[in-house]
Amino acid sequence: MKKGLALKPLSICVTAVLLTVCLAAHARCQEEEIGVVDMTKVIDLSKQGKKAMDEMAAKLKGAKKDLEKRESEIISLKGEIEKDAMTLPAEALAQKERQYQDKFIDYRRKLEEYQHQLSAKNEEINKRMLSLTNDVVDEIGSGRYLLIFEKTASGVLYNVDSIDLTDEVIERLNKK
Q: pLDDT by residue for the chain (176 residues), tens digit each?
C-alpha cells in the first residue's frame, strides 16, 4: 500500500504540469489563428493574375489558330485523296498519302509543342503569382497567424469564412 501512496503525489504533480501546459497552449491558440487563401480566386480576381491569364489566353489563341489551319489542310488533303483515289496513278496517290502522313505527323508534333509551351507558361504564371502572394501572406500572417494554408491544394474541405484571407490578399496585391 505504501507504493500506491508514494505514486499519488507524483501523479498529482504530473497532472498539474500537463494541465498547465494544455492551458498555456490553449491560451496561445486563442491569440494566433489559422487562415486560408484560395489561389484560384487570387489569380482570377487580382490585377496581376488577370494580366497573367491574358498572356496565357493570347498564347492559347495563337496556338489554336495555327492548329486549326493545319487541321484544315489535313482534312482537305484527305478529301482530295478520297476523291481522286480511283483516277490518280498509283505513284501520285502514294505521294499524296505520304504528304498526308507528313502533315499529320507535323500536326501532332506541333500540338505536343504547344501543349508543352502552355504547360511551361502555366507553371511560370503559378510561380510568379505564388511569389507575389507569398510576400503578401507573410505580411498578413506575421505575428497574428500560426498557419495559413492554400485552400484547394492543402486539402481543406471546410473552413469558416472568418479565416478566409483571400479577399485581403487580393486587395493588397492590387495595391502593389
A: 444 444 455 445 444 444 444 445 554 555 568 888 998 899 999 999 999 999 899 989 999 999 999 999 999 999 998 998 888 898 988 999 999 999 999 999 999 999 999 999 889 988 888 888 998 999 988 878 888 888 877 777 777 878 888 999 999 999 98
Q: What is the DSSP letter of 151?
A: T
CB under 8 Å to 168, separation ≥6 — which residues? 140
DSSP notation for 109-121: HHHHHHHHHHHHH
List, in order, residues 6 or more apart from 28 with CB less than 8 Å away.
none
Q: Report in angstroms the alpha-carbon separations of 110 from 11, 74, 114, 159, 175.
A: 73, 13, 6, 43, 40
User: How far apart, in whole angstroms, are the C-alpha atoms of residue 10 and residue 132?
Assistant: 53
pTM of the predicted protein model: 0.63
Nearest Cα to 168, choosing from 137, 142, 129, 144?
A: 137
